[in-house]
Please model this.
Amino acid sequence: MAGIELAGVSTVYPNGVRAVDALDLTVADGEFFALLGPSGCGKTTLLRTIAGLEQASSGSVSIGGADVTRLEPGVRKVAMVFQDYALFPHMTVSENIAYPLRVRRAPKPERAETAARTAAGLGLAGLLERRPAQLSGGQQQRVALARAMAMSAEVLLLDEPLSNLDARLRLEARTFLKRLQRDLGLTTVFVTHDQAEALAMADRIAVMSEGRIRQLGSPRDVFQRPADTFVANFIGSTPMNLLPAQVRNGRVEVAGAHLDPGGPHPDAPVTVGIRPEYLHEAPEGITGTVSIVENLGVTSLVTLECPQDVTVGLTVPEHEEPPVGSVLTVAPRPGRLLLYDSDTGQLT
Ligand code: ATP
Model:
């Protein structure tokens, strides 16, 4: 069993920056867990605190039920892949990947076999005899990943492990990583600033800002019901519509339209949240003029200029694009309208 438990963990740097702030977090044994957030929110510091590369200033870190707060990284039984790879320059790819097995004194044939198998899975089969200096950045990154996997630690900590790969390799490596993680039952904490990657790979996601967790949930939870406007803004390939509105007499007044709030709600100023994917043309709703149409591949993003200076985005199937200048009326699909408190930004 190798779950991770953080209780009241703060990590403060000597210059006084509180990069992780009184954070509680439980990662289950075998879970694939993503730490997601903008640059500087404390993701890497949190990962390094789990690994023992940074000391928690307060609180406790447990791995597999044992308190490791004061233990050195080497005895925490975690494998970590860094943003800067840290490969051994004088060793070949094969030797780099098999290094953890050499440390364990595994026999040579086993080392070579493990290196070859892991390398093949990450598209490195033809490169086993090269040295790191003879590899591209993305190839080096995959060697670092392969080496971490060969450590057979129960906990794998990954800091942006796919960030240097091109779009296609990234998708392949995602699938490989996810399959390997599941087959080996590795408890994995994965740091990324890429919300699409977190949504695609993780069992659960913690969305962070300023050293704290803003929302923790399944990809579906954070996509469909962002807990606040920060998360709503951060998650989704097309930004969520966040529109100033007013609830009056059980209706939501927004951009000159009166929408159903989907349940009882007191009269109050609110921010309406609707994903572009959940808006569709309807007989009644928000009316606006098409100003921009952007092709996203299978769908297109249509921008509508609406009354009260409100701009609304909606996605439509690529072959159903309305012409620029035409007038559309759109409404949210049932249950897809979210109301946020205008002062606190919290989901109501
Ligand atoms: P990124 O995605 O850019 O890597 P991050 O979310 O991983 O960002 P961290 O690297 O954990 O964020 O940084 C969190 C905060 O701590 C930032 O304000 C950063 O400037 C600060 N910080 C990071 N490392 C140090 C350090 N060694 N000394 C002092 N402050 C640091």
In short: Residues 167-184 form the longest helix (18 residues). The domain at 4-233 is CATH 3.40.50.300 (Rossmann fold). The pocket of adenosine-5'-triphosphate is lined by residues 13, 15, 17, 19, 37, 39-45, 193 (CB under 6 Å).
